[in-house]
């Protein structure tokens, strides 16, 4: 870590001897004053500042458990020099409580409020452990420090570099999003301390030749998880399990977070040995820093941007960190507000930005007053130079832990800070939950007179910049999706949101379609589905779903009957309806057709209501197919265009040649001129062929266009959904690896493709019925021509 000038051999030997001597002394000192297992050194009186430190004249050692200065700890001169140069003198509570235990080599579960100095509480024991083990470059990896986000890993790395600058260890920052992974692979084996995100570490474990962390076992070195509860969370489960399986069980493990896990299962996964649980602020009245003033304001969804805009305009001399729920929300607010020029620099930070830019924005925000719009990527661990004045939570955090971490970006160490949470009427439950967690919130009312509306300005921006309109649509959908995906349904209920008003507040002229909500409606009963629709929502606001050919088998009462039978059935139904008969089907048709057009036309493929023993979906599908069948019946495939249908005495249709036959068999019939007939039919055949070719070409073109359109639509839908999922899931944190690749798809664009495959494709695209009926028609037309000819 530190850079040293070349030294003579003699100096080197002298240094080594004094190091060996210092290490022996430190080990004796540590051993002599070990705090009792399970005790909290915070309860001990601090040593007087002027009391002698280290080996005392009587051969004993000074007490280090309970001391409150770094200089009183049994740590190396190199570490002490680093701390002094960084101006760290007095320990914070978590440092006082944990360092005496961790320096003895014990496993630690440390929990303390945000901004209370947890980083030094693990950086110091890491440096000391390697120093006492006389770890050198040839020894490989001696310590792994893991963080859930790249920015936080970068920040930890900086602290490690500055405090450890007098040590000779090599340390490396291994985080995703950096292009130089190959260069990293060449050097990673020579590193002693790895500061990393789980994904990148696992990548090296999988891909880098000879990358081996098994040395950790030889001398029981250190594994650190910062923001441990987040790393142990489901999002990182797979990566972490894979990493742990490659690490030896014998090691020192240090876990720190402001919201610590106590789950026995989690701790078992990490094989902790009798860990010291040090929750230093557990007895405190509040779970958040005392110097933090926290407020909450009731803001309806459609007024959020007005409120945010007004807030920014009222605090132009502050450094404001604004949390929104998705990357698209962040982008939208950033891009539009930037164009509206509020009078303060604006910045944005989210997981889909390039890593270099992310780092750049982070440091710029540390330097100057500005507004930073961010997703939860900035919610944990980041220490913005202790100078964030306001944390504004525009979108509700997913739980109390997320709230604590977000507001913890201000009021760090000894500084003060303020926060405001926008709460929607449907989210009021969060206030109760926060109160239960000892979070003191004052609910305040905004001064209506000072609220400036921004929706009209947004609407005109959207007209001027079409790209922004698309962004607004995406922001709209991803926001609703984020609410829909939240686990705590007591707080988050997408159906209670004023969707149209929200869309208008983004400046959108029309409410976009929300595909993902289909899932929510699936399998609901009529009343359940209706209860999902907000009371103040008009029919036009209901979610629109296109009517498709049903994909599941339909219980059609007519199944298996031929076309002729269908005609009969159809006529029967029509007759009975006309006569006002008591036919259940016809009544049912009326009832459901009304229902269909009134309310649920959009849901034909979604609902599976059980009504009168048959599901409504089945009914609706059955109706839909009947309509299609009726349409098909209008085309009598046996009859050439322009001929009349002739019925016999019993009302049955006669084949086209029957009339000729009948007339020719009559006694006083006129003998037909065979040549003329042949000529006539040749002409007809020719015309038919031309018409047939034109039809085929037209049909082929139409099918091709339909296929392309469908493909584009599907592709766009998939991309958008993937994008939304990425934005919402762990992508803001380090992207968990092992995600399934997009499936390779085979498209058959050419009309010359093999028929079977084309048939398959056509079926998938819902045009099977058309394709088959056309083939049938062609075949029948040819048969007819042939029979006429003969
Ligand atoms: N003993 C100390 N003396 C002075 N400043 C300190 C001390 N310990 C930590 N700090 C400063 O306090 C700030 C917060 O420290 P740190 O980032 O370690 O907090 P944290 O508890 O890890 O916060 P979070 O829970 O948000 O990750 C940093 O700016 C750090 O430099």
In words, what does this structure look like?
The protein is α/β, with parallel strands linked by helices and 790 residues long. A 7-stranded parallel sheet has the order 3-4-2-5-6-1-7, sandwiched between helices. The chain has a 7-stranded parallel sheet with strand order 10-11-9-12-13-8-14, with helices on both faces. The protein has a two-stranded antiparallel sheet with strand order 15-16. Strand 15 (610-611) and strand 16 (614-615) form a beta hairpin. Mean pLDDT is 76; it is low at 533-637, 662-670 and 735-772. Adenosine-5'-triphosphate binds next to helix 4.
Short description:
The chain is α/β, with parallel strands linked by helices and 790 residues long. It is built from 28 helices and 16 strands. 46% of the residues lie in helices and 9% in strands.
Could you say which structural class the secondary elements and strand pairing correspond to?
A: alpha/beta
The fraction of residues assigned to DSSP E strands is 5-15%
Contiguous runs where pLDDT drops below 50 for at least 5 residues: 533-637, 662-670, 735-772
Query: How far is it from the N-terminal to the C-terminal residue, by CA?
Result: 98 Å
What does the largest sheet look like? 7 strands, parallel
Shape: elongated
Spatial strand order of the main sheet: 3-4-2-5-6-1-7
Fraction of residues in H or I helices: 40-55%
- Tally the helices: 28
Bound molecules: adenosine-5'-triphosphate
Chain-averaged pLDDT: 76
Q: Give the strand tally.
A: 16
Using the CA coordinates, give the radius of gyration.
37 Å
